[in-house]
Amino acid sequence: MSALRATALRIAPRPTTTRRPNYVAGLFALIWLAIVLAPVYVLVKGSLQNQEEYTTSGPLSLPSHLTTENYHLVFQDGFLKFFLNTAIITVSVVAIVVLLVPPVAFAIVRNRSRTVTIVFRILLLGLAVPIQAVIVPIFYLILKAGFYDTLPAVILPTAAFSIPLSTIVLTGSMRDITSDMYEAMALDGASSWRTFRNLVLPLSRGGLATVIIFSALQAWNGFLFPLILTQSSGVRVFTLGLFDFNTANSVDAPAICAAVVLSIIPILLVYLFARRALIRGLMGVGGK
Amino acid sequence: MATTTLMVRRRLLTRSRSSGGVKIGRPSFLWSLPAITFFALFAIVPLGVVAWLSLTSWDGIASPHWVGTANWSAMFSDPVFLKSFRITALLVGLGIVTQTPLSLLPGVWAAGYQRNRAILSAIYFIPLLMSAAAISIVWLSLLNPYFGLPRELHGVFGGGLFNGGFLFSSPATAIGVLTFVGMWQWSPFHTLIYQGGARAIPEVLYQAAAIDGAGRFRQFFHITLPQLRNTMITSIVLMLVGGLTTFDSILILTQGQPGTSTEATSYYMYVKAFQSFQFGEASVIAVVLAVFTTLVSLIVVRLSGWDKMRSTQEGI
Questions:
Q1: With an 8 Å Cβ cutoff, is A117 touching chain B?
Q2: Residue B62 — left, alpha, or beta (φ > 0 → left; ψ -120 to 50 → alpha)?
Q3: Cβ atoms of B304 and B233 closer than 8 Å
Q4: SS3 of residue B215 by DSSP
Q5: Exposed, middle or buried by CB within 10 Å (0-12, 13-18, 19+), for B115?
Q6: Cα of B304 to nearest chain A Cα, Å
Q7: How many CB atoms lie within 10 A of CB A128?
Q8: What's residue B121's pLDDT?
Q9: Per residue in A146-155, pLDDT tens?
Q10: Distance, CA of A238 to CA of A40 (rounded, Å)
């Protein structure tokens, strides 16, 4: 029934009431837009400016000439290595999540035993566990397991903490599959594995895309786990590199701008090509 | 109707299942085992470990040894710890008060389908692309009293309201900086939530109000706001949970300074553990944090209806 209503809403034409434009709201929107865009402008402009000019003329002033020396400095500081480490972590986290989450979501949607209900409750409760509350014991366990200061030390907990929300997103899209379809599969005598592979996975691609982008963002922007669980520069990630670079070069604003710009570019590319999936993934990030 | 035949068919299928028939195509609970084991190992087991660690003394090098409730009594007579609750509450309160209007209004505005609104909101979501670390670093540099905005815009920042431009040096302005950066970082996300909520309001309501002669303001206060009640609850509770664990921005922007005036609870735990190496006492704070956020999240589950998800299962 609710599915029916949803389609009805989708079919209904977008509201086309010819209301007069809201000038007051537009004015405020423009003001806030300026506050959002000012730092973006400073980032891009500052990263191409030399330090003396930035320091003497201030962040908002127009540059007199442009230079790429800041980017050279950032690359000399080993940012390519940080970039690589972050990429390895991101890909591994996404791989773990994609392997583990679809089966558990499938079980939650289609298995009605008490055990699975408890599993779902634990995951819901898991949403409430803040990383800060468990960072000390995770540090202890990682130390005991001998993983301290390695990439798996960051990959494993990051992936684990992406599981609850990913599961909830994916069960949401698996519930949209109507029971007719499951019944059709059952009448054909399909095993749970075949139902999963031929029906559930193809039909929950949208949810899976959201989950991939959400967990990739978590891994790419993660800060606390790398801060606590790694130490040497060989396993440093982008956010932590940014943090250390900022501590070491706190007066070199243009270099910091260049480092920040480099850290945003990959996500900006995703934003340009997959805006809707990214926005849905971002909604997940804030839910944590 | 289609629904009835569906229900009949479903009842047939369930009966065959309950009478010992094969559970065709239904996954066994084993399907949930890998994920839940992995998750429990890193989130549930640590909760037990942290409770145990809170009863031990550990410096990070030697083995932890049992001290009973010594850490607990030490922490609850620690003035910095007790003060950190007040600071956390202040930051959370200021966050909600500033971010709600700044996401509600743009959210409702961006819910319109006009082309200019779509373009502006695409730009508006840019802060969402940046990591918390990057955002804090950018603002730390921008608000630097010697080469940042306070010097360039001295006319604005020179007054006593902004502590003469030295924003990080007085408790009030330091709290202000954290609130402002939180606003910049989080309002786009909450705008998204409100945009979704506002788009779900039936257009008929506005048409009816317009026929009755209600202007834009009355429509906003008598239709939009009441209809967004649930959206608002969800958004505010998310701000609560997020605010309780604010950490990155404090570490990068203020380090709890000046004095201990921005030392919020989760940041104080980090200091205790990874700067003073008093892991036992840090574990006490961690347990308190976990209890607090669990309580708040239980409220989320109740209010947002997440716990009712099972009843809407399998359609109908």
A1: yes
A2: beta
A3: yes
A4: coil
A5: exposed
A6: 12
A7: 20
A8: 77
A9: 888 899 999 9
A10: 19
**Joined tokens for residue A187:** 């009448």
- Closest approach of A115 to chain B, Cα-based (Å): 7
Across the interface, whether the CB atoms of B46 and A132 are under 8 A apart is answered no
Give the integer Cα–Cα distance in Å for B63 and A8: 64
Does the pLDDT of residue B269 top 80, yes or no? yes
CB contact under 8 A, A138 and B42: yes
pLDDT at A88 over 90: yes
At residue A96, does pLDDT exceed 90?
yes
Q: Tokens at residue A171, please?
A: 């069960």
How confident is the model at residue B220, as a pLDDT? 82
Is the bond leading into A137 cis (omega within 30 degrees of zero)?
Answer: no
Alpha helices (H) along B200-278: 203-211, 216-219, 225-227, 229-244, 248-253, 265-274
Using CA atoms, how far apart are residues B244 and B267, in angstroms rounded to an integer? 10
Distance of CA A236 to the CA centre of its chain: 19
B283, A138 Cβ separation under 8 angstroms = no
Per-residue pLDDT band for B68 (boundaries 50, 70, 90) equals confident
DSSP letters spanning A139-173: HHHHHHHT-TTSHHHHHHHHHHHHHHHHHHHHHHH
Query: DSSP assignment of A43-66, as one string?
Result: HHHHHTS-HHHHHHH-SSSPPSS-
B92 to chain A, minimum CA–CA distance in Å? 15
B189: nearest Cα among B250, B110, B267, B246: B110
Chain B CB within 8 Å of residue A184 CB: no
Q: Does A185 touch chain B (CB under 8 A)?
A: yes
pLDDT at A281: 63
pLDDT above 80 (res B153): no
Top residue of A132, A154, A162, A194 to mutate, by most chain B CBs within 10 Å, is A132
Q: Which residues lie across from B65 on neighbouring strands?
A: B57
Q: C-alpha distances in angstroms, A63 versus A41, A132, B173?
A: 12, 42, 30
d(CA A39, CA A42): 5
> From CA B265, how far away is CA B263, in angstroms rounded?
7
Which class does domain A78-250+264-287 fall in?
mainly alpha
Residue B6, pLDDT > 60, answer no
Q: Are B245 and B289 in contact (CB under 8 A)?
A: yes
Nearest to A283 by CA among A171, A207, A205: A207
State percent of chain B over pLDDT 70. Answer: 84
CATH number corresponding to B70-304: 1.10.3720.10
Q: Where are the domains of chain A?
A: 78-250+264-287
The whole-angstrom separation of Cα A42 and Cα A60 is 6
Q: In A, which residues are within 8 Å of B36 by CB distance?
A: 104, 119, 122-123
